[in-house]
Amino acid sequence: MAESGGHGVGGAAGVMGGSAPYARRGPSPTALGRWLKGERLGEDAAIALAAGRAAARARARMIGRRVLLSLPALVGVVIVSFVLTRALPGDPAAYFAGPAADAQSIAEIRAQLGLDRSLPEQFLVYVGDLLGGDLGQSISTGQPVLEELARRLPASLELTLSALILSTLVAVPLGVAAAARQGTWVDHACRAVVTAGVSLPTFFTGIALVYVFYYVLGWAPAPLGRLDLLYFPPEPVTGFYTVDAVLAGELETLRGALAQLALPAVTLALFTMAPLARMARAAMLEALGSDYVRTARAAGLSPTRVLYGVAFSNAMLPVVTTLGMVFSFTLGANVLVEKVFAWPGVGSYAVEALVVSDYAAVQGFVLAMAVLFVALNLLIDVIYTLIDPRTRQGA
Amino acid sequence: MTAATPARPTGLRAFLAHGAYVLRDNPVTLIAFALFLFIVFCAVFGPLLAPYDPLESNAARALQPPSADHWFGTDSLGRDVFSRVLVATRLDLAISVAAVALSFCAGSAIGAAAGYWGGWVDAVTGRVVDTIMAFPLFVLAMGIVAALGNTVENIVYATAIINLPFYARVARAEVAIRREAGFAQAARLAGNSDLRVLALHIFPNALPPMMVQLSLNMGWAILNAAGLSFIGLGVRPPTPEWGIMVAEGANFIVSGEWWLAIFPGLALMLAVFTFNLLGDGLRDLVDPRRRT
Amino acid sequence: MQRRDFMRGAGAVTLGAAALPFLKVLPAAAQGADTVVMVMGQTINSLDLHRTGTNRPSYQIAVNAYDRLVEFGVKTLPDGSLSYDYATLVPGVAESWSFSDDGLVITFRLRPEGKFQDGSPITAQDVKWSYDRAVTVGGFPSTQMRAGGLESPEQFEAVDDLTFRVTLKRPSKLSLPDMAVPVPFILNSRLALANATADDPWALEYVHKNTVGSGPFRVTRWEPGQSLVYERNDGYTSGPVPQIARVIVREVPSPATRRALIERGDVQMSFDIPNKDAKELEGTDGLTVNTTPVENAIYILGTNLNFEPFKNKLVRQAVAWSVPYDDVFQTAAYGRGVPMHGGKSFTPETIEWPQPFPYSTDLDRAKALLEEAGYGAGFEVPFYIDLSQSDWMEPAALLIQENLAKIGISAPLEKVPGANWRTASLVEKRLPLHLETFGGWLNYPCYYFYWAYLEGNLFNSANYRNEEIEAMVPKALHLPVDDPEYIAMCKRMIEIAWDEVPRIALWQPAVNAAYRDMTGYEYWFHRQPTIRGWKRA
Questions:
Q1: Who among A92, A108, A215 is closest to C264 (CB)?
Q2: What confidence category does residue A333 fall into, taking pLDDT thresholds of 50, 70 and 90?
Q3: C-alpha torsion A248→A253→A254→A260, nearest 10
Q4: Which end of chain C has less neighbouring CB within 10 Å, N or C?
Q5: Fold category of C3-257+512-536 in CATH
Q6: Of C16, C224, C252, the CB nearest to A224
Q7: pTM of the full predicted structure?
Q8: Greatest distance between any 2 Cα atoms in chain C
Q9: Domains and their CATH numbers in chain B
Q10: Minimal Cα–Cα distance from C448 to chain B, Å?
């Protein structure tokens, strides 16, 4: 019974607060679907999925239903982002008319931008373009929004993923150690460390790291985006410079890309450690207290094997799902880190666009993020049903 | 001892005893409580204790490093950083408390209604909450503040809106599972109206997990306000506020005036740290299962 | 040619993908003696100044990748630094020019050897097409052209391949200098037309992403929001071929990062650095900091006449006497620029502009004036500043606010986001008390007064109107500068501006650049990096 509370507070909430709760059972983090379904991912669902082909069909149906159910949210995002951008202060026409424009030239530009039409009309035009796959043109950078998002998204994804890998590598062992020595100074120290990490504004951590490691010590390269001036990007395949450099066999470029990635990734990792460490700790505690661990102990397995073999493998599911939530949150939240490190990602793009009331760019960014968010939640749900131990046991 | 509902009204004494146990058991939480009291003290008495007027400039004393006269140094206008950090406590605390209180009230009302009545109420609120969740939250907050203007109230509203989904979801889940619980059925049979059953019988039981969230969100609200300040959408100058001071001070780090950003940064970190640890502590407190 | 194919239809994605052959070897070359790496804080959003929405930092493309008919010369200032020379016009695409006796017709003779970057000759038809484009596209380019009396295509005529003729409606001293500002740049019309469409006769889309000029540099790589690469045009015909082969421009939004980069020597040039950095970096080993006051520009405190108390001249004067000028200049400008307060007399002796206003800090006098105006009890007025200029506006506003409080005027601060600022301050002109900045490209007092003191004109953010000024400015604009009538008029305008003070001068701003391992930095009125004269040390 009591675990239901954990569902609610888990996942996203933990990401936001930077402190995921001590979930009382494995599959706790709340993917969007949990709310949509209206009930906890119940045992009945698990049983239904358990029966071979029927399960596959059920799974496909479930995914289909999730996709359908996520559509209203996307429609909502389209409407709200349209209204919100139109409510932004200022007159883009006047802003972009240039330093010496008069009323006439501003009116000309307003007509060119289509801003002289009524709001409903503008909205219909926007939706029409959207359906045609056209996100419009950013007026501040002068490029099509879709093109720019496509170019910048890999940068944000690469940064976020690197940060999360780093964060996981540190946070999970910390969480496991804390769980293994629950209540001792190790536990408290882990808690204090990860909490301290999440207590600093990322832009502050970023600037402090730049100051120490670039300016004072000279260890890090200049914080100038994804690659030092000395390198030019590798042939784009994935858009991830590190991966592309490996594919192209340019190790020098790989080193350059990694060096640029280090500080912003550490900055973000510090901020994302807390939810992962907490979830790892909680899941480990849960696993250690479970029947199968007790059985394993009784069967005479060594404590190490119990800890790392049995308990750890069972505790990873909630950590993985938390990771998904943290990922989608971080992708939208690394706006400030990108700004500090001149990182050419979507976040810094959105900030600049918002400040100059660049409607198309802001709407495009928000929509892209919303689609990613929904897709990621779907993915989490799917992975979750695929690797849920109960499902496997049943199959 | 695995209680079904964590905070049943089991008597104040038992609760306090449990609290004392948790504090003894967990020194970190004890420290957090002490820090919390300290922060509240600064918020209440800060303006009285500040050695200088936090707004008074003195161009002749601009950018002085920390000294006996100015413990945290002075800023580019010659204002005393220590006084500004101290006085800012009240505003920062007020922003986070107001934002979190607002999202708590609105979110839990929406969520409780959705959880209790289900049906179209649930469907509509569900979609609204989905929509907010699907937004990149910080950018949503930026958009709201940019659209409405950067005043303290609007920062509070923006922070409240982006926090709202979490309360709505928790409240909904907690209420939904108790809707048909025995005590709720009994209350209905006794002739209580739906609203009464929801407000007086079911909702109080949903509070504990939300209390935990409250404390965690306070810290996040402060960080959020600081982030907005960094973009230039914070409270208006010359009002002292930690986020703005860090954001402005950050530009001075490279030129060697580290004190402008470090001290408000530490204050900010201390507050967020306290709220986060406190959230953990509260969770232990409201979760009697930890006693085993 | 392959450049065009590579760019066509590909847009920024391919631009970023780096298909140019030399780029593979750039890592070594980037450190070479012929490359300058420059950082700046803003984004270049178009390669075409004529395009709608092109922002100010993008004007440097017109400056560096294109030529004009005529250009301003370069002179050495008393402190040894280089500056453009408003008094000297030198040949650009045109090798010579002459005025008709009545001053109405200017005939330009183009350089016979003139070549565009693709090797095709520069003809008078190209010039006419470019001028037609500038006056037709609307927006800022057309406004700027009008200031020089260049209003419609009928005024421009390609007499033969090498002769271009401009016919003016009236003689004006502004016409020729206005042809040397960045706006009337010469495009390769054949190349542009090959990429024009029925909907886009001026090839705005193509020129937005490609440079089709004859300038000393071509843009070979542009990643909006990140970087831009200039490569030398080895076949440059409108002047000496530049010494450096390549300039890499990196956009770095954080001023702290930019400072660290130039201080540590990872870049050679940091353009338009904050006053504080300029002050502190001066004297750093190996680093040169160049500070040049911007001609014909003043940072001002505006008192809007729409706001009841400011209708009274005495109140405006009281505000002018209350500003803590010295503190503002030291704290907000870090002593960079030229103070514009403390003038001796209320009657100007010269027509030099800007020159110090006859106000200084005198709170007693300010209070007395307020009493006299009937506002002895004070009043409240919102004080607006621009968020994107808060580096200088915020400290200045806070200091002014503090002193205003001492004479009973409470002025709560309002920060306006960048997008709204222009609209609110210049278009709607609705900000009661505000900070504002205007600098005229054409260096004449009458030009400044035209924009900033005539009712309804864009930079008159104070809604000021004075019948005498309204009558004098249109006349003065076209009079030669040595005309006694012109001098008398300008003196009178300045006298009125001082007495009435709708715009209270704070200081004359300066543009700062810091550089190392290079020489040849020039200050230009348009405040854009002008790279043709740069040399690696």
A1: A215
A2: low
A3: -150
A4: N
A5: D-Maltodextrin-Binding Protein; domain 2 (3.40.190)
A6: C252
A7: 0.79
A8: 75
A9: 117-292 (1.10.3720.10)
A10: 32
